[in-house]
Design goal:
By secondary structure, this protein is mostly beta strands. Helices cover about 15% and strands about 45% of the residues. Strands 1-3-4-7-8-9-10-11 form an eight-stranded antiparallel beta barrel. A two-stranded antiparallel sheet has the order 5-6. The chain is globular and about 70 Å long.
């Protein structure tokens, strides 16, 4: 019994030493996740809040989705057919993590007049809950998004 207790205590100590170093990367969490950052960021994201310099623009994004795919592809859909986004109707491109996975870079290359890149600070990256923030021309832009997976 004592041997089992020592082994359990050792495993618990190892867990307590390893886990805190991998937790709470983003300002708004999550504290801990069993899913990788790539698994958490991929999906069809819908907007729950869009603010530009404090002004609520959520209604303008009501029927838009951002489809972030595991292989690095990215599509902006501007409507729905039933419950599925129209992936072919919006711009597309690629995404990647940058700055030690503290930022999400979206590079749009197709369906746009000129290529452009948006680099977002990740504030929250949870399974089904994504919060992004960036500054452009002195304005703070916030996206809060949800995904039903």
């Amino acid at each position: 019994m004592t041997k089992l207790l020592k082994k359990s205590a050792g495993i618990l100590l190892l867990f307590l030493l390893i886990v805190p170093s991998s937790c709470k990367k983003y300002d708004d969490g999550p504290w801990f996740s069993i899913y990788s950052k790539t698994e958490r960021v991929t999906g069809n994201w819908r907007f729950s809040l869009v603010r530009e310099d404090g002004e609520d623009l959520t209604e303008e994004y009501a029927n838009n989705t951002v489809n972030i795919q595991k292989g690095g592809n990215l599509y902006w859909a501007q409507g729905y057919i039933g419950n599925n986004p129209w992936d072919t109707y919006g711009p597309g491109g690629e995404w990647r993590f940058v700055n030690d996975k503290n930022q999400l870079e979206m590079h749009f290359t197709s369906g746009v007049k000129e290529e452009f890149t948006l680099t977002w600070d990740i504030k929250r990256l949870a399974y089904g809950d994504l919060r992004l923030e960036r500054h452009e021309d002195g304005k703070k832009i916030e996206w809060r998004m949800w995904s039903a997976y």
